[in-house]
Specification:
single chain; alpha/beta; Urease, subunit C, domain 1; TIM Barrel; Dna Ligase, domain 1; 3 domains; 9-stranded mixed β-sheet; 8-stranded parallel β-sheet; 16 helices; 22 strands; about 30% helix; binds zinc ion
Length: about 475
């Protein structure tokens, strides 16, 4: 029990608190002073005086959501309001996923998919420390926990990324990785499915992942194969975790392409078995379409492909790839070549697999949103309200308390974000107020940038950042460094 203060900065009263642990909601008041929650209790409003009072009648008061999988490395600099995320109730994002981070790499054109974050003009941080300093000098509205990308390490250390690294290049990558971890990165991501990392043998990843153990870092991975070979990829991921002695997170877990539909029964069983001997987690986004750069190989097996951006043909954004191709009267390869560099949405997954993965024990929610696409996948604006509204309230996949747990308590534990993801005295005051009856995603595949419904207020480090359907102008976001004291 904590002592109840007589005065606080912010008193959120008369709401139903869902604390992030999975426990049932309770009608409680929450007092905030500075950047912390100082008290949670029954009728605090009777004896605590507050500078600002927020009436949360009829609303849920929950920990701010942690987006477990993002590509917001540059967005936090170029769009510090972070409206696509804050409007969903997100208060922290894990950046640097799928092997792609904005540092340490500078001075050259980045290979795809690193170009999803920006062109060469945005790659100006030769070390992770310099990137973090730039973010701290001009902070965003929300917190970020950065990963360093294996593909960024390769691009920085190798003259040609389309081959295995030499011993000397691995040594160079280790130096860059150590620097990033010492700067406070929470771990390393890999994007082994992408051309600039596909030639990296398992041993190269094990060598680098082994450096993570000393820093309490984590390995997140966009696995080599998310289609017919997904089970082999799970085996490789578990092997890397075991040999390197580090926890692993399987990024945006899916079974992609008709031939792999239904394999989630086996992938999830393998992950559940592995949990008895090693730390393995996963994140998932609530849609049956994926999105990334436009690549010929990835078009095969897709039910439908939408173009999200194209540098030479910006007018093609939002259009069906197939209709562009037939209008041009050319083959798939030529159409890809003419559109590139470009991005796409691929409809390749089955709803049953998606629901099975969402329901899996402690599955985390990660948007995988691509903030710089001109016609983005709706997951950028809709992921969290879609899980709360469509999958929890409408379909009853799990309780609202469980949905919130997967967005807060679980990622805080997995990524070692001490003091986040909980409504309790002493925790950081990252809080969202939402209407459990109204919360819903409004972004879809035809209007992808519409803000969600039902998110009333968002508080980051004790400051209101979203109120009345708009950004307040506050930029209290911080870099969440791996807490070494905990290791
Ligand atoms: Zn990915």
């Amino acid at each position: 029990m904590s002592t109840v203060p007589t005065h606080c900065d912010l008193l959120i009263h008369s709401g139903d608190v869902i604390d992030g642990t999975g426990a049932a909601r309770a009608h409680l008041d929450v007092a905030v002073t500075g950047d912390r929650i100082v008290a949670v209790g029954d009728h605090l409003d009777l004896h605590v005086d507050a500078t600002t009072k927020i009436d949360a009648s009829g609303l849920i008061v929950a920990p701010g959501f942690i987006d477990a999988h993002t590509h917001d490395d540059r967005a936090v600099l170029s769009g510090p309001d972070m409206t696509p995320k804050v409007s969903q109730g997100v208060t922290s994002v894990v950046t640097g996923n799928c092997g792609a981070s904005l540092a340490p790499f500078a001075g050259r054109e980045p290979p795809p998919p690193m170009n999803l974050l920006g062109d060469a003009s945005w790659y100006r941080f030769p070390t992770m420390r310099e990137y973090m300093a730039a973010v701290e000098a001009s902070p965003p509205a929300l917190n970020l926990a950065p990963l360093v990308g294996h593909t960024a390490l390769r691009a920085a250390a190798m003259d040609d990324v389309y081959r295995a690294a030499t011993t000397a290049e691995i040594t160079h990558m280790e130096v860059l990785l150590d620097e990033a971890l010492e700067a406070g990165c929470i771990g390393m991501s890999t994007g082994l499915a992408y051309p600039p990392a596909v030639q990296a043998p398992t041993g190269e990843v094990v060598a680098l992942a082994s450096r993570l153990a000393a820093h309490g870092g984590i390995h997140t991975t966009h696995m080599r194969d998310e289609g017919a070979g997904v089970l082999d990829s799970i085996r490789e991921t578990l092997e890397i975790g075991e040999r390197a002695g580090v926890p692993v997170v399987i990024s945006h877990h899916k079974c992609s392409g008709r031939e792999s539909w239904g394999l989630s029964r086996e992938t999830l069983a393998a992950i559940a078995r592995a949990r008895s001997r090693q730390s393995v987690d996963l994140d998932v986004y609530p849609y049956v379409a994926s999105s990334t750069v436009l690549l010929t190989d990835w078009i095969a097996g897709a039910e439908r492909v939408l173009v999200t951006w194209s540098a030479p043909h910006p007018e093609c954004k939002g259009r069906d790839f197939e209709s562009i191709r037939s209008e041009w009267g050319c083959g798939v390869e030529e159409a890809v070549e003419r559109l590139s560099p470009a991005g796409a949405i691929y409809f390749k997954m089955d709803e049953e697999d998606l629901r099975r993965i969402l329901r899996f024990q402690d599955a985390m929610i990660g948007s995988d949103g691509l903030p710089h696409d001109t016609f983005p996948h709706p997951r950028l604006w809709g992921t969290f309200p879609r899980v709360l509204g469509h999958y929890s309230r409408e379909l009853g996949l799990f309780s609202l308390e469980e949905a919130v747990h997967r967005m807060t308590g679980v990622p805080a534990r997995v990524f070692g974000l001490t003091g986040r993801g909980a409504v309790r005295p002493g925790a950081f005051a990252d809080i969202v107020l939402f209407d459990p009856e109204q919360v819903a995603d409004e972004a879809d595949f035809s209007v992808p940038t519409r803000p969600a419904r039902g998110i009333y207020q968002v508080i980051v480090n004790g400051m209101q950042v979203w109120r009345g359907g708009e950004w307040t102008g506050a930029r209290p976001g911080r870099i969440l460094r791996r807490d070494r004291a905990e290791d």
